[in-house]
Amino acid sequence: xxxxxxxxxxxxxxxxxxxxxxxxxxxxxxxxxxxxxxxxxxxxxxxxxxxxxxxxxxxxxxxxxxxxxxxxxxxxxxxxxxxx
Length: 84
Known about the structure:
Blueprint: H1 5-19, H2 29-40, H3 44-68
C-alpha cells in the first residue's frame, strides 16, 4: 500500500505502538501522535494520511471477516518491500 519511505516509517511506528500498547500509559490522540512524531520525525499531516489509509484497510479486513468468517490466505502488507 505504501511506497514512500516516509509513509512506511509512519505505518511501522503505528504498528509498533500496537505492539507496545501495554506499556503506554496515556492513550489520548494527541499523545499518540506525539509518540509517532518522535519516532518518525514527520509532521502530523503525513501521519493522519497514513493512519486514514490503514483505517480503511482495517475496515475492509473486518468486513471480510464478518461476512466469510475468515481472512484471505494472501496477506497484503502495508508497504512494498522493494522500495524500502
